[in-house]
Amino acid sequence: MVEEAKLEILAEADQPGVRIGYVARRHDIYPAQIRLWRKSLSHFDASASFLPVQLVDEVTLGQTPAASPTPVFIKILLRNGRGLKVPADIERKTLASLIACVEAA
After folding, report:
1. What's the rounded Cα separation, in Å, for the pair 17 and 30?
2. For the whole prediction, is pTM greater than 0.70?
3. Residue 76 forms beta bridges with which residues?
4. Domain extents for the chain?
């Protein structure tokens, strides 16, 4: 099958609420084939990359912010096109588990 067609099928299967079995039947392939393509593509672009970072002034212990602090969230876009929005102070282990679950889904 042509790579372009595989990517289109994967994009269709990655839509929220869509079942892999339904997409597989529509394209006359087995659901396991879609899972295999997902797995092979997740390792395809595993190279490291740099992310943009914005530095802000640090608040020292003696200073208090003028307004009550609002929770800080980080939005992470994963390789499969899905995203996570997590608290900035999330534990590394928890974040790793969440990312693994979302990428495997």
Report:
1. 19
2. no
3. 84
4. 1-46, 71-105
How big is the CA angle at 88 (ends 85 and 94), to the nearest 5 degrees?
75
The yes-or-no verdict on residue 31 having pLDDT over 90 is yes
DSSP labels, 4-24: HHHHHHHHHHTSTT--HHHHH
Asked whether the beta carbons of 18 and 9 are under 8 A apart, the reply is: no
Q: Which of 64, 71, 104, 105 is nearest to 88 (CA)?
A: 71
End-to-end CA distance of the chain: 23
Length of the chain, please?
105
Name the token pair of 92: 């590394």
